[in-house]
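Good morning,

Both structures are done.
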Amino acid sequence: MKDIYEFLDENQVGYERHDHRAVFTVEEAKEYSPKLDGASTKNLFLRDKKGTRHFLLTVPEDKKVDLKYLSTKIGSSRLSFASPERLKTHLGIEPGAVSLLALANDQEQNVEAFIDQEIWQAEAILCHPLVNTSTLVIPRKDMGQFLEKTGHGVNLIEV
């Protein structure tokens, strides 16, 4: 995969970049990331029971996720968190850097992406650019364009 900024620029996806110290959790992001206008997210990389389907779920940072309910909602067997190795294999990133932008690395569309409807209400979405030392503010229309360009599309879900 090429540089994420090249991908964004080539596909005319607008963004505003803000650098900060490395953050690994929502709590650290709240403490060390600048206060930005946009939906703050929590991103879960999940797998089904057999490990044949993989999912990226993006929800508001404070939302609790019931994996049993979610598996029923998306028509999957029991869901669990995927390993760091699976994360690296499918999205090319390390834990702590998970965001919708990692879908640029999923060129075969092996990962199914779902965005909580609440996130899509915001004018902009906050995302890590494949590393956890920056946050990008991406307008919703540009995020929609990004998701189309990666072949994943916008799949909204009520979590």
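Second structure follows.
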Amino acid sequence: MVIDNHGPLRLRWFLKMNATQKQFDTQIAEADSVQNISINFLEDFRKELPEWFLKMERNNIKYSIANCKLLFWGSLTNFSRKEDHIANVPVYNPEAHLSFEYYRFINAYFSHGNPVENNITGTRRMLSILNKEYPGIDSSLLGEIKSFYITGHIAELYSGSNSDIESSEVDFFIKSHKLNFSDVEQKYINDEKNIALDRQLDLASLKPGNSAPDFNLKDLTGKYYSLSDFKGKIIYLHFWATWCGPCLAELPVLNKLITDVNNDAVVFVNVCLDHDIIKWEQIITKDKLLGMNLICDGDWSKSLDSLYKIASIPHYTLIDKNGLIIKNNFVRPGNITK
């Protein structure tokens, strides 16, 4: 039936977002109109649908629109201020416990007004966000909804951990906030933690001295390059994506490193893992991204994720003149510059 969570409409709204009050007011009015149309459409079928489904879909509609309003407000205020009246829905709502849009909404709600520096990535970024959000979560949510929401966050933190250090930081968060989980919740968390431990072992499998996995990727002119084309030089391999905020924030630091090194014996290869060629070209031009710029097409993005054990981006690998790994998951350019 229904409503596809306003996905295409939400995308159209986001593409038009800007930081003007007039645009914000227009989008709020349009969102209210869409909500009313969607609810009325649902009501037309109420005799044919079970009550639990109607209740779930009403909440999906309301919280999907509320989430859009939060993002409109974030665009207007640069996500620096939280205003409860903008969304105009209850944050704690036991009747919405079956609605996935409700959980998406409260995730966005608690993150507003809690900006995190873009130079933090992966589990540490998620932990930094959760530490700032937790007082609001603790005071606003109750019972099964709070338990479900926190359990999901903790499982996600473990799932994204790429080292024993990151996993231990999640352990510390649990202890410091005196979190207790039911047997079922603890099993779910442990399963995600074990998956992360297995991946950490896998990450370590691309060892110094191993042959660096090859690729065949095109540059801005459409010419294809393999890793072997750079043999004889030290290769600083940089994986990023056009949609990745921390990646974009790091581009000026990478440019500084390339300028400071200024050595023909070292080549900097920037591999974009998504397929948005137009946005890729725009970013390269706007940020004057130095080095060799390549982009994935076909299945290369998925293949390189696996071959280079990429769990989060930006991801860096240092390769020697013979095409052998010096260090996978190498230090970031800012650390080298310092």
